[in-house]
Predict the 3D structure of the following.
Amino acid sequence: MATATFLLRHSRNLTAHHSRLVTLSRATTLQLQVNPKQRTNLIQNNNNILRFMSSLKSTPDLCDDFEDTIRVVDPSLGLHNLGGKNHFGGQVVTVKCHEDNSFVKQLAKTDGKGKVMVVDGGGSRRRALLGDQVAADCVNSGWEGLVIYGSIRDVDEIKALSSLGVQALGTHPCKTLKRNEGQTGIPVEFGGVTFSSGDYVVCDNNGIVVNDAPMDK
């Protein structure tokens, strides 16, 4: 409670983006009062996200600062910015699916403040794993962005969402099947990099970088 109150007291000095993270810290802390260990871990994790988001650097600067630990997604994979925000980052939440965005759709409606959804769609270009409606859900839930090893659609509408970053292989006009198939929270790999939930990712026009710990020094 003390930590949540402290964060709220200082939220006026933060940007609106950071204030959303403070709200997340307070709300989730209150829900876990019965478990002190969980509460401590949650507060620490949210503080890490807040600190990381407050000093988000470009991927070239991060490669210079964290050259011993940082992982760079192979640029030849072809991922590029298709969303309204070209520089974004956050804590990784993973999804693995193939031409079925059921789990992407479900996660889009959960709290995504300070987080980036990393979707391993197997590189399929035959279906779109993200459209305007799911993207709008992501905005409403506070997601920082998505990295999609696959395709999206409604690209003009998604590009107009200034608070949401999206990197993907390209576009396809057809929606996915809905078989409720996929997995979340498991390590996924593409572009020579393994992403695990809890990692930290930063994306911009230069590329995509990943690190196990917050890149905030």
Notes: The radius of gyration is 17 Å. Helices lie at 2-9, 16-31, 36-54, 59-65, 102-108, 132-140, 155-159. The CA atoms of residues 90 and 114 lie 5 Å apart.
